Amino acid sequence: MSRKTARRHAFHLIFTMPYNGALDAQKLAKIKAAYFDFLDEGETEDYGLENLTRPRSRDAEYIDRVFWGVFERLSELDGVIENFLREWTIDRINKVDLALMRLSIYEILCEKDVPIAVAVNEAVELAKLYGADESPAFINGVLGNVAREIQAKGREIS
After folding, report:
1. Distance from CA of residue 76 to its chain's centroid?
2. Exposed / middle / buried, residue 66 (Cβ in 10 Å: 0-12, 13-18, 19+)
């Protein structure tokens, strides 16, 4: 499995967060287990999960780190997103775009082995697969501005 595929798993898991009410670690653990059980069962084509299998070793560790990291830093990540929205509120962002921006910003801030440009580009590529027609441009615009500020501050956002 590649990091690209592991990132796709992480996106799917992060995407489920807003649909599960108030989140806690126990509920998230159940969501994650159910997701991987669903993959194991097959029949995933109708859900945009085709060709995805349960990750192993480093990929599973990456997915765990990102999934739990986004959960733990959700308000910080959303604050970063809100700082770069123009005439928008975070509530207006579709859930695919929001999940992709949360994932990308988490990677930029916390996954030091992921180049900033790669985090942004991968979010845009996933937006082409899962988002609306305007999603890639919207995500690229917001994340491009985030990336410039983060680079200027040495990967720190205050």
Report:
1. 14
2. buried
Q: What is the pTM of this model?
A: 0.89
* pLDDT score, position 49: 66
Q: What angle do CA 130, 86, 107 make, to 5 degrees?
A: 50
Please give the C-alpha separations between residue 27 and each of 19, 23, 34, 71, 149, in angstroms, as whole numbers.
12, 6, 11, 11, 34
CA angle 21, 53, 108 (to 5 degrees): 60
Amino acid 44 reads T
pLDDT for residue 61 is more than 50: yes
Q: What tokens were used for 90?
A: 């975070």
Residue reference for tokens 């690229």: 140
C-alpha to C-alpha distances, 21 to 16, 24, 63, nearest whole angstrom: 10, 10, 22
